[in-house]
Design a protein that fits this description.
Blueprint: H1 3-35, E1 42-48, H2 52-68, E2 77-83, H3 89-101, E3 106-109, H4 112-121, E4 127-129, E5 151-155, H5 158-172, E6 178-183, H6 189-201, E7 205-210, H7 215-227, E8 232-235, H8 239-243, H9 245-254, E9 259-261, H10 264-268, E10 273-277, H11 279-294, E11 305-306, E12 310-315, H12 316-321, H13 328-333, E13 336-338
Parallel strand pairs: 1-2, 1-3, 3-4, 4-5, 5-11, 6-7, 6-8, 8-9, 9-10, 12-13
Antiparallel strand pairs: 10-12
Helix pairs in contact: 2-11, 3-4, 5-6, 7-9
């Protein structure tokens, strides 16, 4: 073969090698491009009885924990928040129904009423209860160990804890004889059922004051408490009262009522005392339920957890403002004393 033909043949082979190499490069580049295509974005429904500002603290805890688990809003999840603005069970039912029609992949609720509304709206979409109530007593799960349906999550032992708060209030105000209880209709029967006999056992007169959760209604409730000559105030442990915590703390200070709350955020706003569940912890744990379900777990296989972290906070600045001296043995029991 002549040298010219040999050179031409080598050039032809080089061209073929170059074409094959470029083809391989294009194939290699196409693989990661396909792998980087966005996957399914899961949609989480979040119907709540209160309002956005009232739930901000706990929603932040929930979102931060989701982020740690790799779930980022706008990337692989979207959260559809719906707030009933304390307009009652009818509104929360409407919101739950709207979310079911949106075909969300999972619903997060807070408390038996919202949980019941969601469960009545769907028997197939997983529902995670973030806090509140006795899910077994409410008929929402068969048992804590074996929920038996599309509902699971956490319970915050509200009926039991409200009696403990009454005991703490009695210890903090030794001469206490009459207590004003702010409550709203409906859905708090479990807490009232526990509290009434507890008040009798402590030789306390319980003045039940039905309260409208707006500025006028709260003012009227405190005026009624003053007329009934109560020596201290407490509320039932519901999200709607939590949403109004700043106003409630303000009124308690103005009317000079020793008051115990169900969540530490009331004390953060200047309230006197709180005894209850660490709700931030509950909402962080809720994120773990969501993580497991979005990865394929079924609610029926996820036992309901009871709250395990509790905290008792006392604000001595608030005590001084209303002229209350809290006994040393009560101070010794607190997890935190704000001086």
């Amino acid at each position: 073969m002549s040298s010219g033909k040999l050179i031409e043949r080598e050039k032809d082979m080089m061209r073929k090698i170059t074409v094959l190499a470029l083809s391989a490069v294009f194939v290699a580049l196409s693989v990661p491009v396909e792998a980087q295509q966005p996957g399914k974005i899961f949609r989480i429904g979040f119907p709540d009885p209160s309002n956005a500002s009232g739930m901000a603290v706990m929603v932040d805890a929930f979102r931060q924990e989701l982020n740690k688990l790799g779930w980022i809003e706008g990337k692989n999840i979207t959260i559809e928040y719906r707030f009933a603005e304390s307009k009652g069970d009818k509104r929360i039912k409407e919101l739950a129904g709207d979310l079911v029609r949106l075909k969300v992949d999972l619903i997060v609720v807070t408390g038996p009423n919202a949980c019941l509304a969601a469960r009545n709206a769907t028997a197939t979409i997983p529902i995670v209860n973030a806090s509140g109530g006795d899910l077994v007593a409410a008929g929402l799960v068969a048992s804590l160990a074996r929920p038996g349906g599309n509902v699971t999550g956490l319970t915050s032992l509200d009926p039991q804890l409200i009696t403990k708060r009454l005991e703490v209030l009695k210890d903090a105000v030794p001469k206490l004889a009459r207590v004003g209880l702010l409550w709203t209709q409906p859905g708090q029967g479990g807490q009232l059922k526990e509290l009434r006999p507890a008040a009798q056992a402590l030789k306390l007169k319980l003045e039940e004051i039905e309260t409208q959760l707006d500025a006028k209604g709260l003012e009227s409730a405190f005026q009624a408490a003053k007329q009934k000559q109560v020596g201290a105030i407490m509320t039932t442990g519901i999200r709607s009262f939590f949403a109004q915590r700043k106003r409630i703390v303000e009124l308690a200070g103005r009317y000079r009522f020793p008051t115990i709350y169900f969540q530490r955020e009331f004390v953060d706003e200047g309230g006197l005392m709180s005894y209850g569940v660490d709700y931030d912890d509950l909402f962080r744990k809720t994120a773990h339920y969501v993580d497991k379900i979005l990865k394929g777990a079924k609610p029926v296989d996820l036992p309901v957890q009871q709250a395990t972290k509790f905290e008792f906070i006392i604000n001595l600045k608030a005590a001084k403002q209303i002229g209350l001296t809290i006994p040393p043995d009560v101070l010794a029991r607190a997890n935190q004393v704000i001086r």
